[in-house]
Amino acid sequence: MALLYRAIWEDDRANLLDEVEREARRWLADKGVPLEAGVDDAAGEYVDVGGETVAFEVTTWRATVPGVAALRLHLVEQRDERGQRWTTDITSLTNGEPGGTIWVDVDRESQDPFTRPLFGAPRIVTSLIESGIAPRVGHVRLEGGPKVIEVDGLAGLIRNEDRRLPVVVFAHDRRGPRETLARAEAAYRRLAGVAQVFVLPEESVEAFKESVGEELAVWGGGARLYLPNRGPGGLNPGRHRYVTGAKAALSLGTAGEVFASLLSTTVPATPPPPAFTAVRAALTSAKDPGLEAALVRGEEELRERDAALQELREQVAVYSEESLELKIENEELNGQLNALSGEVSRLRPLAGKASSAPAVVELPDAVSTIREALELATKLFHLEIHPDAPIDIEKLDRDVASGAWANTIWRGLRALDAYASGEYAVEGGLWEWCRAGLSPWTWPASAKKLAMTESEGVLNDPRLRGKRLFPVSDKVTPGGRIEMLSHLKIAEGGGPIAPRLYFLDDTAGATGKVHIGFIGPHEHVPNQGRS
After folding, report:
1. pTM
2. pLDDT at residue 430, rounded to an integer
3. Residue 461 is part of which domain span?
4. How many domains does the structure of the chain reveal?
């Protein structure tokens, strides 16, 4: 079972346990889960909004120990069509005074161990926040939607070393405040409970930049996720991921999805509320008093395992942040590499080393999105990308590593075009051309970056080999479909979403070009061991 989402916050409403139960039952009813009034436990089936039949179980526990009263509603949803089992736990804790703690966890088990969905706040969380009394994490208020905020308050919040809640800030987009608010609203729905979303109006953008510094600012319709400011490197700009206005404009949900990806490892590392330790055994044994003695005996071992699990989650969160810093560094290095390549390619003709190939129109050295790279590639003379070749490009562009991927793909397209142009020609094919490294836009001749064919496992498996039939110009082959085994590995690691680019070398054929038949996530061209 994988913990995908965890939100824990304080709320001042009176009769907290009853109010949370009321909201939870309303949420179940909206989902279509039948739970009669006065009934704590139920099991059966319901049909969700997509028409899928879902088997469910609902269990409710209540317990009181000295100093703490608790209620937990436990929902299990079995989705056999997807091979998934989802569990939602809604827990409320109070010490007898008005208010207390609300805690929501979402877990998932899946028959597909290779994919981990990005978390999204369940509707029960937004309902509880929007109906709450001063819901908050530490001193940061959880608002029932994006909030416009003044510069001084926002800058102080970002710098505050006691802040435990991540903050997302959207800058005004010149296309209008409605566009900005729509993106912020989509991010709020995705991140509710684990981050607070703010909107910076147009007249405040420059003042905010002056207040926090250009490297920490947000502008031009972009958005930034400000992680808690802790440790000596707490305000290092690299920690606080920025989504450019161009990338945020890809779709209303792009920025929110990028930030959900970033928080997907840190959110589960949030420790349970301290009050839960005192009431856990009583809450668990509430349905069966006979379990209490066994739970008491096992409590110490359970605490040790919980501590070990929490430590591992915190280590994963630390490694995730370090990985983010490396991704950002990789993104910057890819941009610098492309800029240097472009500079060299422009200087070489001045040094008398021009090739006989036609001049390439002036193109930018770096790009901000994969979509931009593909649009620019239409201006390359010796490369042809089939209209059906790009698959799930928006999905790639929403990933946290998309900046590095975009510039790597752009470099790969420039390399294929330069090779097909005959620039710095060498004896042999693309591998030999890359290995010679004469062109400033060359591609690494490495098994980790370039494959001229597939592995024996793929070649000998008709099902997997069949996934390598891609669209191509009719000038290459009648019917417009051909097997492509050669490919650029845009990113190693990254799992099923890591991009791949499949191509056909027709430089010695009728078109004299390199043809691209597929650009998209690795999951569409699986290897052995993947479905």
Report:
1. 0.70
2. 93
3. 358-524
4. 2
Question: Longest Cα pair distance anywhere in the chain, in angstroms?
Answer: 89
Amino acid letter at 273? P
- Per the CB < 8 A criterion, the answer to whether 495 and 400 are in contact is no
Tokens of 350: 């001045």
Residue 238 lies in a domain: no
Question: Element (H or E) spanning 101, and its range?
Answer: strand 100-110
Give the contacts of 509 (CB within 8 A, at least 6 positions apart): 476
Give residues with Cβ within 8 angstroms of 379, minimum separation 6.
361, 363
d(CA 312, CA 321): 14
Please report whether residue 344 resides in a domain. Answer: no
| pLDDT class of 47 with cuts at 50, 70, 90 | confident
Alpha carbons 63 and 436: distance in angstroms, whole number: 72
Residue from 23, 8, 13, 275 nearest 134 by CA: 13
Same structural domain, 375 and 481: yes
Instruction: Specify if 504 maps to a domain.
Output: yes
pLDDT category at 352 given cuts 50, 70, 90 is very low
Domain limit, last residue, from 257, 287, 317: 287
Partner residues linked to 399 by β-bridges: none
Half-sphere CA count of 181, side-chain side, radius 13 A: 8
